[in-house]
């Protein structure tokens, strides 16, 4: 918004709409600064060591926000009495100075607040570690109960702090790692309770001690990882070297190959050969695995051999094209690029099929938890021989599931899902031996209720992880089939030659500075509409609703188009914009279908209005698609087409601003009237709801089981009084 104001072009003639838009932006900036500073001042009052620095930064920010509001108070400029008023039009440098001061002070507040948050998390972690040391050394049950009550409260505090931090993280990879660490802490807190009680009840039992030590060790590792993520550091300054998956390797390899269309000299043939070798080395995880079917193994080996041949052919044509850039050679190069990429796609599809079919079979086979049930029964019977037999079977099952996680990591498709696979692998690796030590303890003390309870807790953790794997498998398949991605990105930008068989495609062009200035006002209106739509979608209780999803998607795309009008963002050329407009129109058509579905649920009185709005939306989207697909030759015609696309997008967004509150109102009315809304999908029912979209596996543990943890603390307090 600030950049929009600074880049605003002064014109002799100013319409009321332009003046109102500028004033709205100025007021919005000032209000946002006011809310921001209020929080900053509250933080300053609670943290005396940084109070002075924070207060100064807050005062500067507030002053700058008020200055911007004054300079953009331009709605009355058309009246003669306002000629002497100092505004953005008469004092552009004033806005620039205020903007610089605002950005500087806001940055300072953010940095200071971040230091405070990191310090709070480290302090909370240190308290947890200190209490854990006390718990390890206790020798009486009464003392343990008292200390565990304190430990539970400290873990609840740590859960809240790290949960907030997780939501604030922008890096999806870090967010997934934080979620995995917090999931470990959540489950281990419950395990620590029963494992410690078992050890106290049976102090001379070696298997009970091993079981307890394993829980404490895992918790310490998870606490350490949280601090690494929060402080963005590694022990001893070492760099994190995550193993490269087949998917990410293929993605990078294809990008390099397709880059040859633009530049024949930007990399060497040795680089490409090395990249392919690394990918094919990773496929050995599949071909060497005892759990890969013979059919999949043969196909992977065939495709690996074919990939080498295709690369050899590509390198041969590429080297010739470097020496002699003829039309025939360039066409041969394009064919070689396409064949190489097609082969890599087939390899990717084959390893995906191998990993997901193995996972589906294993999860189905182990869904009855027969080995766990047998361990519980034989443990209570005190049958050491039978327990030993079933622990061997559990070890085999563990090896199968660990291998499954390793193969799934290669085909997960996104970094957050990769991390979730690694977390799942670690969980099976650690939990398997812990179940075995808990079962051995029960077999040695078959009448011990606490030993039986302890085994139950570890078995539940195993079952829970298996259940999570089913969800993870579904998400991996969603990514592969294009239903979800690393983020909610709605750009399907064409690469040269990818969507068009004709190698002589039209050369994409960018808007020049003059054209950007002409279209700036329309872009600003589009930007304000995206803010309005986002505001409306936030009011919906059910963020998973199809109407909300489509609305958010359209807002995201419209925002990209607004950035294009300023020469920013991912849409670099006019062709990108037209392609985005087509996708936007398609999304709008899907929204219209969702509105038709909603009309079947609402009362008869409301149906005509909803159907009328849906038809309006369909008509507007069709017009936008026609405009986006129409050919435009020459600079002037192209700009006219750009202007028309953005204008029609703005019209759709205006309608969307009216539709969202209407649908929200109808849904609430319908829900209050007969409660016939469709229920959420059953696989989400047992997930703890949070304020954010639970779209990725790393977000499933946002609440860190705080309720269950608090219940445990309450129960322990009751136990103590008893």
From TrEMBL:
<dbReference type="Pfam" id="PF01044">
    <property type="entry name" value="Vinculin"/>
</dbReference>
<comment type="similarity">
    <text>Belongs to the vinculin/alpha-catenin family.</text>
</comment>
<keyword id="KW-0963">Cytoplasm</keyword>
<dbReference type="InterPro" id="IPR036723">
    <property type="entry name" value="Alpha-catenin/vinculin-like_sf"/>
</dbReference>
<dbReference type="InterPro" id="IPR030045">
    <property type="entry name" value="CTNNAL1"/>
</dbReference>
<protein>
    <recommendedName>
        <fullName>Alpha-catulin</fullName>
    </recommendedName>
</protein>
<dbReference type="GO" id="GO:0007266">
    <property type="term" value="P:Rho protein signal transduction"/>
</dbReference>
<dbReference type="GO" id="GO:0007155">
    <property type="term" value="P:cell adhesion"/>
</dbReference>
<dbReference type="GO" id="GO:0005737">
    <property type="term" value="C:cytoplasm"/>
</dbReference>
<dbReference type="GO" id="GO:0051015">
    <property type="term" value="F:actin filament binding"/>
</dbReference>
<dbReference type="InterPro" id="IPR006077">
    <property type="entry name" value="Vinculin/catenin"/>
</dbReference>
């Amino acid at each position: 918004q600030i950049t929009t104001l600074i880049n605003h072009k002064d014109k002799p003639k100013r319409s009321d709409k332009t003046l109102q838009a500028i004033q709205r932006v100025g007021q919005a900036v000032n209000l946002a600064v006011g809310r921001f500073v209020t929080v900053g001042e509250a933080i300053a009052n609670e943290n005396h060591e940084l109070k002075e620095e924070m207060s100064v930064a807050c005062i500067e920010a507030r002053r700058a926000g008020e200055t911007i509001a004054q300079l953009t108070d331009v709605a009355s400029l058309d009246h003669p009495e306002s000629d002497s008023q100092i505004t953005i039009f008469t004092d552009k440098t004033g806005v620039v100075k205020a903007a610089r001061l605002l950005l500087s002070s806001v940055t300072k507040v953010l940095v200071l607040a971040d230091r405070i948050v990191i310090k709070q998390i480290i302090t909370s972690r240190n308290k947890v570690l200190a209490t854990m040391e006390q718990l390890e050394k206790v020798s009486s049950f009464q003392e343990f109960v008292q200390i565990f009550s304190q430990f539970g409260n400290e873990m609840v505090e740590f859960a809240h702090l790290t949960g907030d931090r997780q939501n604030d993280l922008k890096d999806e990879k870090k967010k997934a790692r934080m979620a995995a660490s917090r999931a470990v802490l959540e489950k281990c807190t419950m395990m620590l309770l029963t494992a410690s009680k078992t050890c106290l009840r049976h102090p001379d039992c070696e298997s009970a001690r091993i079981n307890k030590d394993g829980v404490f060790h895992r918790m310490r590792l998870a606490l350490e990882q949280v601090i690494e993520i929060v402080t963005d550091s590694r022990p001893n300054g070492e760099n994190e070297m995550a193993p490269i998956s087949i998917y990410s390797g293929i993605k990078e390899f294809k990008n390099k190959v397709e880059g040859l269309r633009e530049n024949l000299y930007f990399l060497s043939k040795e680089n490409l050969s090395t990249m392919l070798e690394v990918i094919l080395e990773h496929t050995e995880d599949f071909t060497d695995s005892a759990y890969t079917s013979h059919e999949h193994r043969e196909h992977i080996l065939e495709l690996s051999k074919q990939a080498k041949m295709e690369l050899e052919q590509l390198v041969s044509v590429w080297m010739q094209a470097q020496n002699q850039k003829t039309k025939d050679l360039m066409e041969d190069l394009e064919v070689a690029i396409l064949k190489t990429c097609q082969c890599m796609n087939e390899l990717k599809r084959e390893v995906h099929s191998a990993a997901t079919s193995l996972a589906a079979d294993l999860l189905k086979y182990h869904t009855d938890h027969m080995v766990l049930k047998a361990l519980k029964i034989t443990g209570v019977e005190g049958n050491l021989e039978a327990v030993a037999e079933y622990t061997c079977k559990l070890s085999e099952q563990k090896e199968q599931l660990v291998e499954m996680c390793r193969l799934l990591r290669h085909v997960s498709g996104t970094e957050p899902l990769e991390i979730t696979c690694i977390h799942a692998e670690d969980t099976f690796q650690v939990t398997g031996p812990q179940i075995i030590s808990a079962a051995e303890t029960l077999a040695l003390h078959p009448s011990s209720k606490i030993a039986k309870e302890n085994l139950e807790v570890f078995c539940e953790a195993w079952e829970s992880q298996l259940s999570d794997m089913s969800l993870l498998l579904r998400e991996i398949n969603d990514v592969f089939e294009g239903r979800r991605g690393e983020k909610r990105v709605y750009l399907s930008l064409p690469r040269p030659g990818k969507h068009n068989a004709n190698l002589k495609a039209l050369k994409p062009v960018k808007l020049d500075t003059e054209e950007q200035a002409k279209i700036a006002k329309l872009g600003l209106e589009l930007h304000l509409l995206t803010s309005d739509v986002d505001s409306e979608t936030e009011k919906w209780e059910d963020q998973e609703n199809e109407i909300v999803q489509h609305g958010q998607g359209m807002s995201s795309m419209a925002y990209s188009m607004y950035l294009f009008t300023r020469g920013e963002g991912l849409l670099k050329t006019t062709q990108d914009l037209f392609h985005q407009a087509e996708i936007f129109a398609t999304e709008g058509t899907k929204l219209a279908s969702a509105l038709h579905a909603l009309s079947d649920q609402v009362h008869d009185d409301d149906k005509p209005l909803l159907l009328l709005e849906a038809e309006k939306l369909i008509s507007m989207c069709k017009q936008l698609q026609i405009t986006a697909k129409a050919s435009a030759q020459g600079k002037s015609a192209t700009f006219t087409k750009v202007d028309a696309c953005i204008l029609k997008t703005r019209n759709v967004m205006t309608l969307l601003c009216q539709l969202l509150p209407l649908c929200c109102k109808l849904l609430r009315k319908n829900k209050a009237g007969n409660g016939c809304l469709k229920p959420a999908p059953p696989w989400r029912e047992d997930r703890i709801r949070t304020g954010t979209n639970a779209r990725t596996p790393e977000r499933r543990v946002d609440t860190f089981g705080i309720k269950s943890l608090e219940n445990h603390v309450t129960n322990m307090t009751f136990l103590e009084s008893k």
